[in-house]
């Protein structure tokens, strides 16, 4: 069955110019949080990279993981709001997270098809940002080319799923949306992950809400 994906961008081309923040962002009930205050990764994480994720100065650092995610073992609610901050210390930026995946999969070769929705800010040498349904290189994705990511800038991400609609807010502004008529849900599509290719990226203040 042909899947139809709907792109809904911010009111202006660049989110800094959009002027009005989304006023109807749901709050929900907190079901998980991690502020990466310990010296090492907690037991609720599964590192499929063999050590490419670590705690540095109260943040989670990802570097050179080559699409081997750090999976959260705690399951996501079907309808969820996921908040996390992220910054890249590399000019290529390439900040990546996954949501509603299987909790165990990782790349076994150069190509990688996720089990989740993939969210990338400043990917492909900082030339585009996307939401992808499993295959970040395939046709089932929403894309925007501006604005480029900024090295060293701390971004606030919010990923919200209600029903078939995925909304991605960056710094409180609508950034990308995907309306998936065949949503990834149920067993095998109920985990969150931080992912990475080569860039030096830092994450903090993960909070997950049930809606």
Salient structural properties:
single chain; 211 residues; mainly beta; Jelly Rolls; 7-stranded antiparallel β-sheet
Description:
This protein is mainly beta. Helices cover 2% and strands 42% of the residues. It has a single domain (15-210), classed as Jelly Rolls (Sandwich). It is built from one helix and 15 strands. The strands form two sheets. Strands 1, 3, 4, 6, 11, 12, 13 and 15 form an eight-stranded antiparallel sheet that branches. Strands 2-5-14-7-8-9-10 form a seven-stranded antiparallel sheet. Strand 12 and strand 13 form a beta hairpin. It is globular. The model is unreliable at 1-23 (pLDDT under 50).
Produce a short descriptive summary.
By secondary structure, the chain is mostly beta strands.
Strand fraction equals: 35-45%
What is the number of helical segments per DSSP (H or I, 4+ residues)?
Answer: 1
Per CATH, the class reads Mainly Beta
**How do the SSEs run, as a string of H and E?**
EEEEEEEEHEEEEEEE
Q: What are the low-pLDDT stretches, counting only 5+ consecutive residues below 50?
A: 1-23
Tell me which oligomeric state these chains represent: single chain
Topology-level CATH name: Jelly Rolls
| Rounded mean pLDDT score | 90
Please tell me how large the radius of gyration is. 16 Å
**At CATH's second level, what is the architecture?**
Sandwich
Q: Globular, elongated, flat, extended or rod-shaped: what is the shape?
A: globular
Structurally, how many domains make up the residues? 1
Number of strands: 15
| Termini Cα gap | 29 Å
Quick one: biggest sheet? 8 strands, antiparallel
Residues in helices, as a percent range: under 10%
């Amino acid at each position: 069955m042909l899947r139809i994906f709907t792109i809904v961008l911010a009111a202006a081309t660049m989110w800094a110019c959009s002027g009005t923040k989304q006023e109807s962002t749901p709050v929900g009930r907190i079901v998980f949080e991690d502020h990466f205050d310990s010296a090492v990764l907690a037991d609720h994480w599964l590192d499929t990279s063999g050590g490419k994720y670590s705690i540095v100065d109260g943040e989670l650092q990802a570097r050179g993981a080559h699409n081997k995610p750090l999976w959260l073992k705690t399951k996501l609610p079907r309808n969820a709001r996921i908040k996390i901050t992220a910054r890249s210390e590399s000019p290529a930026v390439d900040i990546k997270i996954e949501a509603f995946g299987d909790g165990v999969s990782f790349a076994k070769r150069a190509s990688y098809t996720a089990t989740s929705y993939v969210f990338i800010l400043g990917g492909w040498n900082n030339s585009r940002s996307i939401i992808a349904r499993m295959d970040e290189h395939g046709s089932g994705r929403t894309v925007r080319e501006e604005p480029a990511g900024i090295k060293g800038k701390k971004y606030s991400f919010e990923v919200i799923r209600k029903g078939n609609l995925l909304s991605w807010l960056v710094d409180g502004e609508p950034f990308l949306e995907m309306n998936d008529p065949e949503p990834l849900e149920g067993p095998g599509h109920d985990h969150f992950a931080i992912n990475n290719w080569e860039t030096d990226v830092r994450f903090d203040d993960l909070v997950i809400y049930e809606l």
